[in-house]
Design a protein that fits this description.
Elements: E1 6-12, H1 21-39, E2 41-47, H2 70-80, E3 84-90, H3 98-105, E4 115-122, H4 128-138, E5 144-153, H5 154-157, E6 158-159, E7 162-163, H6 167-193, E8 199-200, E9 207-210, H7 216-233, H8 240-243, H9 246-255, E10 257-263, E11 266-276, E12 279-287, H10 296-305, E13 314-320, H11 324-332, E14 336-341, E15 346-352
Parallel strand pairs: 1-2, 1-3, 3-4, 4-5, 12-13
Antiparallel strand pairs: 6-7, 8-9, 9-10, 10-11, 11-12, 13-15, 14-15
Length: 358
Amino acid sequence: MSTKPARVLVLICSTRPGALGPLVAQWLIEAATPRAAALGVELVPVALGELNLPFLDEEEHPSSGVYQHEHTRRWSAIVDAADGFIAVTPEYNYGMPATLKNALDYLGREWAWKPIGFVSYGNTSAGTRSVQHAKQVVTTLRLVPLGATVAIRIGDAVESGRLLPDPVRDTAGVGLVDELVRVAHALRPLRERGRAGTLSGPLPGSYARRLTPDDAPEVTVLQRCCWVDEAVANDTMAVPALHESLEEVRGWLDTWHTTGIWLDGRLLGMVRARREGTDLQVGRLAVVPDLRGRGLGRWLLRIAETGARPDCRRIVLFTGAKSLRNIALYQSEGYQSAPLTRPDGTTCLIKGISASQR
C-alpha cells in the first residue's frame, strides 16, 4: 500500500431545502474520522449545491479537458485533487438526483481510476435504486464503484429531524471508508499513468514522473536499499543517503528535479538533477538491486541529461571512488574522471556538452 495520504470527497448530492443529506454526511464523517485518521485519510465534505454548477454548458466535450467557464475549472481542480469519493445521495423517482448526474457529466479524465462509494437514504428502498442508477453512469467515467454500501431507511433511522444512534450503521460506514482507501491505493498507479508529465518507462508497464516531497517515504526506502552496496564497496558507512531523515529527503525533493520510475506502485529507480551556474549537477542515481543490469540506470541518466539547457557547458556528478560498476557506466556514457577525490571518498566525473548538443 502506498504511504501517500488520501483525499476523499464526501459528496452531498441533494440540494432540496431541509434535505437529510447534510445530516447523513455529518454522521459519516464523525463516525469514520478516527479510522480515517489512522489510515492517513482526509474526509472532505463537498455540497454539490454550493458549487453553483449550471446544467452542463461547456461547448467542448468533457473528454477534451478544454473548459471555458470558471465554474468548470474550479470543479475540475477539486475532483482532480481527490483520490476517491463517497456520494451521499437520496433517491428521486428510482434514480439519482440530477445534481449528481450533472456534476459527473461535467468532467472526464479527472474521475478516471478513482473509487466511489455510496451512502443512500430513502423510504421504501432506502435509496438503493439511486445507487444502482449511479453505478451505471460512473463506470462509463472509469470510476470504480465499491461493493460496500450504506443504505438508510428514513422511517427507521430518523426521529424529529435527526439521525438516531445506530452502532451497526457506524460499523458499516467505517467499513465503507476502509474498502475505499484500499481500492484507492490499489488504483493509484493507473491514476498516475494518466496524468500530464508522465513518460513511458523502460520496462513494460512502467512509467516515469517527477518525484515530489510526498514521495519521500518511497525515496528513503529506495536509498537505503541501494546505498548499502556502495557503503560496502567503499568501506564506509558515512554515506548521506543511508542516514537521511524523511524531512531531509523531503527538503531536497523540493529543490532538485528528481525523476522516478514506477511499476505497480513500486519505485524502481530515480535520479536527480539541478542547474548550478553553467553546470548541470546529477546525482542519486539508484535502481533497485533486483532490477540492475536491465538498462534502468542508463535510461535515468539520459533522462537527467535532458535537463541541460542551451547555456550549460558540462554535466557533473560524483560517485564513490571504489564504485567501479558506477564509474564504468558513466564512462560508457561519455563521462571522464576528473583529477579530484573529495575527503568523503567520492570522485568526480564530468561530461562536456558541445555547442551542437546544446
